[in-house]
């Protein structure tokens, strides 16, 4: 069971017989960076179009200037809070799988949660996808409950949640096509996967 903490606990040291299999480092690999950013923009545009069918943007921001500034201010503050909460969920799931060295940071482009420990493939996929799933559900519920005049304030964050998860989706895609024996460590700016060497 993937949520069995003892069975899927991380390890502090890389076991003998493991060697580096691949690295995902979007700060160094420009091709991956362009791919992920392109996907993020495409997802955001698609969600914007869908949202416009639900509540037209012109109906939300077609009011007094004070109301518009208030909504934009709340949206920016809420998005900053969302980014922090997103990374906290990554960190909480790292802790759930036994990590004692979770660190948080900001590169200037994005925030991250990192750990020097090694996670199994499936637990790491859970760690990777947990924030987009949890906050996707929470934000979708809030979107359904808020007055239509505030819909886009929340929906903007919801769209950012899914668009911003393009990197997480890419990592998951790479891991899902890899052996279950992988062990992964995440420095926050790069993810390294290790696998058993052939005997």
What's the helix and strand layout?
Elements: E1 18-24, H1 30-54, H2 57-60, H3 65-96, E2 103-106, E3 111-120, H4 121-145, H5 151-164, H6 166-176, E4 183-186, E5 191-196
Antiparallel strand pairs: 1-5, 2-3, 3-4, 4-5
Architecture overview:
The chain has 199 residues and is an alpha+beta fold. The chain has one domain (27-196). It has six helices and five strands, in the order E-H-H-H-E-E-H-H-H-E-E. Strands 1-5-4-3-2 form a five-stranded antiparallel sheet. Helix 3 (65-96) packs antiparallel against helix 4 (121-145) and helix 4 packs antiparallel against helix 6. The longest helix has 32 residues, at 65-96. It is elongated. The two termini are 29 Å apart. The relative contact order is 0.21. The mean pLDDT is 90.
What attributes characterize this protein structure?
single chain, 199 residues, alpha+beta, 6 helices, 5 strands, 56% helix, elongated
């Amino acid at each position: 069971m993937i949520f069995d903490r003892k069975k899927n606990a991380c390890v502090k040291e890389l076991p003998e017989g493991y060697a580096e299999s691949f690295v995902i480092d979007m700060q160094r690999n420009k091709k991956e960076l362009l791919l992920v950013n392109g996907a993020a923009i495409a997802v955001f545009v698609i969600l914007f179009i869908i949202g416009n069918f639900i509540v037209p943007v012109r109906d939300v921001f077609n009011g007094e200037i004070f109301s518009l500034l208030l909504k934009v201010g709340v949206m920016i503050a809420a998005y900053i809070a969302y980014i922090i909460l997103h990374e906290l969920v990554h960190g909480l799931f790292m802790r759930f799988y036994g990590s004692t060295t979770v660190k948080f940071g900001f590169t200037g482009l994005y925030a991250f949660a990192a750990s020097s420990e090694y996670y199994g493939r499936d637990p790491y996929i859970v760690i990777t996808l947990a924030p987009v799933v949890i906050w996707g559900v929470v934000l979708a519920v809030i979107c359904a409950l808020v007055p239509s005049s505030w819909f886009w304030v929340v929906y903007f964050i919801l769209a950012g949640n899914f668009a911003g998860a393009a990197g997480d989706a890419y990592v998951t895609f790479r891991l899902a096509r890899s052996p279950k024996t992988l062990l992964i460590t995440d420095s926050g700016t790069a993810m390294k996967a290790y696998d058993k060497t052939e005997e």
